[in-house]
Amino acid sequence: HESQNDQQLDALHSKIRTLTLRGVTTDIYDDVESQNSTLDEMGNTFTTFAGSLAQSLRRAAHAFGSTGSLKQYHLLVLIIGAVVGLWILWHFIGWVWPSSGANV
User: Fold this and answer.
1) Distance between CA atoms of 75 and 71, rounded to whole angstroms?
2) Which residue ranges of the chain lie beneath pLDDT 50?
């Protein structure tokens, strides 16, 4: 009887391993699908943002009358400088008044 019990126990272990492996595989597949959906949504968001930004820049160029390439260059430098300035200000404020969990 003991060898028969060992055989049945081995068969049960085999079934459990198969079910566990199947469950892990299903979980991995579901996670990959979820991440792919998230990445697709992010890609669409960035594409929409890029289109909106380009349209805003065209409108700003038109509003400021910058039809020449030199004026557009100056506007671009101004925008990039503003972004860099805000970034530096943000880091300076974080350095002066660090939050409790921030590692600066």
Assistant:
1) 6
2) 102, 104
